[in-house]
Design a protein that fits this description.
By secondary structure, this protein is mainly α. The chain is built from three helices and no strands.
């Protein structure tokens, strides 16, 4: 389907950006619950043990939503990394393209 001539250096940088963005996104998704707990002063796993001004319904909602979002986000990040790395396998390195062009002109 794809061969080395179809993808150039611009495509290579695009797929590298996809992989880097997916890794940064993964870090944000997996740290989000801990950061929100720290900012709000609430433990979502044991909401009754913490005393804060945050309504219990908000704590319960976030306690259910954040783990689900972390799971969905993790699946999407894995797919993005697999697609990005898979596409990078088809992109030739810059010195390979020069070598190929020299072979074609000879």
């Amino acid at each position: 389907m794809l061969n080395t001539q179809e993808l150039d250096l611009q495509d290579r940088s695009k797929y590298i950006n996809i992989v880097v963005g997916a890794v940064i996104g993964a870090a944000i998704m997996f740290l989000a619950q801990d950061v929100i707990e720290w900012f709000m002063g609430v433990d979502f796993e044991n909401p009754s043990a913490t005393s804060s001004d945050v309504p219990a319904s908000i704590v319960t909602l976030l306690g259910r939503m954040l783990p689900f979002a972390k799971w969905i986000g993790g699946v999407l990040v894995v797919f993005a990394i697999l697609i990005g790395v898979g596409k990078l396998q088809f992109v030739g390195k810059p010195h390979d393209m020069k070598t190929q062009s020299m072979l074609d002109s000879a």
